[in-house]
From TrEMBL:
CDD domains: TlpA_like_family. The lineage of its organism: Bacteria, Pseudomonadati, Bacteroidota, Bacteroidia, Bacteroidales. Residues 1-18 form the signal peptide. Keywords: Signal. This is TlpA family protein disulfide reductase.
Length: 444
C-alpha cells in the first residue's frame, strides 16, 4: 500500500471568448503535495450516524461494521463520505438506491453521471466509524482506518470538540493533532487503487455528528506566484472540481477567505497573463492552466472584470423570456438566492429600497432562484413584495447556477452597462452605495 495524491483528472471546464477564435496554450505546472491546510480556511464536513428509518432512501447505504472495540458501550455506527457521487452511482447499480431516488438526486444536483470516471462495481468511498461511551462515560470514537468493516482492531479515542479546535490559539495545529491515517479507494483509469490519506476528526455533542476533513493540499508556482490547490468538496476532483488559492490574497493570518478562492473555469491574472484554470491531472500530477490570448473584456467568466455570461430564462411569475443581453446599457444586479437561506431573505428589504430609489432606465435587478418548491417560492416572492424579475436557475438550458459557478447563497454580481462584471458578492448597504454612486457619475 502506497501513499498517493488522491486527486483525479476532472472534466475540464472551458472559458468562452465573446467573439472569434484563439490559439490558447495549455501550461502544466508540477504539484507538490503538502500536509495541512495551507492558505485554505479550516472547515469540517458533518458525518451523520446511520439512520434507523427503513423508509429513508439512504438507509441501504448504511455501513454496519462487524463489531466495535472492546469496552465501548452505547455504540452507534456511521460513515464518512469521500465521494458522494461515486457512492450514489454504485449504490444505484447495486440496487441499494431506487431508480426514482437516483433520478431525483440527478435532478436536484443538476448532475449527469460521467460513466468514464465512475465505477458500477463497488469502490470503498466511505469510512465506517463508531461513537459510544468509555468506562468513565466519556464520548469516544473509533475509525475503521484499514477499511475492513471491523472496528474491533481499532483504537478508541476522545475526539476534540469543534468549538475547542476553533477557539484554540492555532486551529490548524489543533485539527492536525486530532488526525488518523485511513485507507480508501481512488477510482481512475478504469480501476480502483487503495491509498492512505490523513483524516482530521472532531465531535459536536449538540448536533450528534462526527465532523471530519482531509488535511492535504498541493502547491505550485507560476512567475514567482505561489499557488495552492485542493478538491473543492470531499476528495474527488473528478466529481467536484477544485479550489485554488493564491498566497498573495492571504490575510495577516495567512489564510485566503472563502470568497477569494478560485474554481475550475475561473481566470487568474498573474504577471499580466490571463490563465483559465483547466483542472488537475494526477496522471502526471500537474495543475493545468490555459493562457488566454484575449483581453478580459472579451472573455465570458463569472468574475470581476470579465463579461457576464449570457442567459435566457423564464420569469417565474409571468413566464416571459428574460435575456441578460436585453439589459445592456444599464446596470444590472444578479441576485442568486434560495429558499431556506435567511441571509438571502434579509437582503430583500434593502434591495427594495434601492429599487425604489432608481429608475429602470438606469438599473435593474434580476433574481436567480435556486430550484425548489414552486409554491413556497411563489409565497416568498409575494410576501416579500419583490417587484423585479425572478428567474428559476434551471429555466435556461445551460442552468444559470452552473454557468455562474454558484455553490453558496446569497451570491451577487453587479454588471455594468457594457456587460462587464463590476463587483461580485457585494451585499447590504454596500450595494446601495455603489449603485447610486455609479448612476450619479453617469448623470454627471
Amino acid at each position: 500500500m502506497r501513499r498517493a495524491l488522491y486527486f483525479a483528472l476532472p472534466a475540464l471546464a472551458a472559458a468562452a471568448l465573446a467573439a472569434g477564435c484563439s490559439e490558447n496554450r495549455v501550461i502544466e505546472l508540477p504539484l507538490t503535495e503538502k500536509t495541512g491546510f495551507g492558505p485554505f480556511t479550516l472547515s469540517y464536513g458533518a458525518s451523520g450516524i446511520n439512520t434507523d428509518d427503513r423508509e429513508n432512501p439512504w438507509y441501504n447505504l448504511n455501513l454496519n461494521p462487524l463489531s466495535a472495540p472492546d469496552g465501548m458501550t452505547d455504540v452507534r455506527y456511521g460513515s464518512i463520505e469521500t465521494d458522494i457521487y461515486q457512492s450514489v452511482y454504485q449504490g444505484y447499480h447495486s440496487g441499494q438506491i431506487t431508480p426514482e431516488f437516483y433520478r431525483n438526486l440527478q435532478a436536484g444536483w443538476n448532475w449527469v453521471p460521467d460513466t468514464l470516471i465512475l465505477s458500477k462495481s463497488p469502490v470503498r468511498t466511505r469510512i465506517a466509524f463508531a461513537v459510544g461511551k468509555d468506562s468513565a462515560g466519556r464520548t469516544v470514537t473509533a475509525i475503521d482506518t484499514d477499511n475492513d468493516m471491523d472496528l474491533a482492531d481499532e483504537e478508541t479515542f476522545i475526539p476534540a470538540g469543534t468549538d475547542e479546535i476553533y477557539a484554540s490559539e492555532n486551529p490548524d495545529s489543533a485539527a492536525l493533532a486530532n488526525t488518523v491515517m485511513v485507507c480508501v479507494d481512488k477510482y481512475a483509469d478504469g480501476r480502483a487503487e487503495e491509498i492512505t490519506i490523513p483524516l482530521s476528526v472532531a465531535w459536536r455533542e449538540k448536533q450528534n455528528y462526527l465532523f471530519t476533513n482531509f488535511p492535504v493540499y498541493s502547491e505550485t508556482e507560476y512567475k514567482g506566484e505561489r499557488i495552492a490547490v485542493r478538491p473543492r468538496q470531499y476528495r474527488s476532483f473528478d466529481n467536484y472540481g477544485l479550489e485554488l488559492a493564491l498566497f498573495r490574497d492571504a490575510d495577516t493570518s495567512g489564510k485566503v477567505s472563502f470568497g477569494h478562492t478560485y474554481k475550475a473555469g475561473d481566470i487568474l491574472d498573474i504577471g499580466g497573463d490571463l490563465l483559465m484554470i483547466k483542472g488537475v491531472d494526477t496522471a502526471d500530477n500537474t495543475l493545468k492552466l490555459e493562457k488566454m490570448n484575449a483581453p478580459a473584456e472579451e472573455i465570458y467568466a463569472a468574475q470581476k472584470g470579465f463579461l457576464a455570461k449570457p442567459f435566457a430564462g423564464r420569469e417565474f411569475t409571468s413566464g416571459r423570456e428574460i435575456r441578460l443581453e436585453d439589459f445592456r446599457g444599464k446596470y444590472v444586479l444578479l441576485d442568486f438566492w434560495a429558499l431556506g437561506c435567511p441571509p438571502c431573505i434579509h437582503e430583500f428589504p434593502i434591495l427594495k429600497e434601492l429599487y425604489q430609489k432608481t429608475g429602470r432606465d438606469d438599473f435593474e435587478i434580476i433574481g436567480i432562484i435556486c430550484p425548489g418548491d414552486s409554491q413556497l417560492i411563489e409565497k416568498t416572492i409575494a410576501s416579500s413584495g419583490l417587484p423585479w424579475p425572478q428567474v428559476m436557475a434551471d429555466s435556461d438550458e445551460s442552468n444559470i447556477n452552473t454557468s455562474y459557478g454558484i455553490y453558496y447563497y446569497p451570491t451577487t454580481f453587479l454588471i455594468g452597462p457594457d456587460g462587464v462584471i463590476l463587483e461580485k458578492d457585494i451585499r447590504g448597504r454596500d450595494i446601495e452605495t455603489k449603485v447610486l454612486s455609479l448612476i450619479g457619475e453617469n448623470e454627471d
